[in-house]
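Category: protein sequence paired with discrete backbone structure
Discipline: computational structural biology
Format: plain text, a pair of labelled lines
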Amino acid sequence: MASSPSHQTHIPLSSDPDGKPIDSVVPIHIVTNASQLPAEFLEPSSERQLVIGFDCEGVDLCRHGSLCIMQLAFPDAIYLVDAIQGGETVVKACKPALESSYITKVIHDCKRDSEALYFQFGIKLHNVVDTQIAYSLIEEQEGRKRSPDDYISFVGLLADPRYCGISYQEKEEVRVLLRQDPQFWTYRPLTELMVRAAADDVRFLPYIYHNMMKKLNQQSLWYLAVRGALYCRCFCINENDYVDWPPLPPVPGVRFIYVDYLIVEGDVPEEEILSILDVPPGKMGRIIGRRGSSILAIKESCNAEILIGGAKGPPDKDESLHVHCDVGV
């Protein structure tokens, strides 16, 4: 287990009668050896299922960048897994947990984190709850319209009183430092600011998760699982069509659809499709169109989310489109 920590923070565990978070003081452990991590994390089990906050920090976080820290938020502690000091060994020790169905990883926007884990460490991130996806699903579920590019930021999510109601002004301080020095997360020893910033990115996530789960209906939960799985693999392009990845959650059967969706929810779930389109060098401008008019029309006409890879995309391609859309079943 981790040694005596020199850092502490607050984790919201429950709400008071007014809905405001009630905090608990927990230690922050800096991990350079797998033995410092909880046994129930290192050895996932159906008898000890976990929900943890998860995030990664690094330099140009993608397949070609450097993953420097993985943050894990438990109810009683936060662990900062130091990939610089602990190296590949300590990160790969987390592989069973990060790929396990028994550990739910709550994260805000998993795409680039998953890409870095896959190409740098061979880890296929699995069983995530992406709070960015969950937020959009709740908005749609409650009848609020959003544009295809209307994604909630982590700061915006924290500020929403339905989920947390916390101001996170310190995030801008770190963003300024990152713009000034992109190598910020590589420096050791970790400064107090680095420790605090890393912990702040995960300590609220389990609390937000529980508040979101109360709002999501069964259909939205299915979409959340499928879209989370697709987002984990959308930048992890390989030559075997993802056969080495866990299977996607299946579309509910006809009887299930009829009973739980046509009658109860009044809506039939749709199949989720992720397509990768390689664009010849220099031709992306034609697809985007003047001031984005062409690509926006595509998004609106087929309710598609389109993610553009470039320098962070496949190494043998100039650019690529990642098209995620819904198709009725």
User: Anything to note?
Assistant: The beta strands are 7-15, 21-31, 50-59, 66-74, 77-82, 103-107, 128-130, 270-279, 305-309, 319-328.
